[in-house]
Amino acid sequence: MEDWDQETLEKVCKYFLGVVKKKQYGWFWDCPNGGKNCHYRHALPPGYVLKSQMKALLDEETEKISIEEEIDNQRAKVVTSTPKLFLQWKKKKIEERDANLAAQQADRAKNDRMRYIHYLFAIIHM
């Protein structure tokens, strides 16, 4: 092992590649070329793509639409804003805000009356 060069160390075992392609590689797989004593690597090289994965990638690329088309599609979905639409939106938001404020004030007034009644009741029973 001491006289091996980097190229020899980086060679991938042909049995390993075959098993990975057939999707049979697993925990209990043992290399027929010597098991743990096999001289070759039992790991895929960096950037290695299986043929089954290559087909999926090619199909995905063909189905993928261009960025320009995607931008145009998204622009078509967006509602154009006009001053008239903006004023309608603003009026609606102001009405919602006023309704929320009125509800909060009514709730506070009710709670204040209840506090005052509890206060009077506490004074009377002293």
Automatic annotation (TrEMBL):
Alphabetically ordered keywords of this record: Coiled coil, Metal-binding, Zinc, Zinc-finger
InterPro entries to which the protein is assigned, alphabetical: ZC3H15/TMA46_C, Znf_CCCH
Pfam families for this protein: DFRP_C
C3H1-type zinc finger segments: 7-45
Coiled coil ranges: 57-112
Residue stretches making up the C3H1-type domain: 7-45
Name of the molecule in the record: C3H1-type domain-containing protein
Gene Ontology MF terms in the entry: mRNA binding; zinc ion binding
GO biological process assignments: cytoplasmic translation
Source species of the chain: Clitoria ternatea
Recorded superkingdom: Eukaryota
PROSITE patterns the UniProt entry points to: ZF_C3H1 (PS50103)
Gene Ontology terms: cellular component: cytosol
Residues spanning the membrane: none
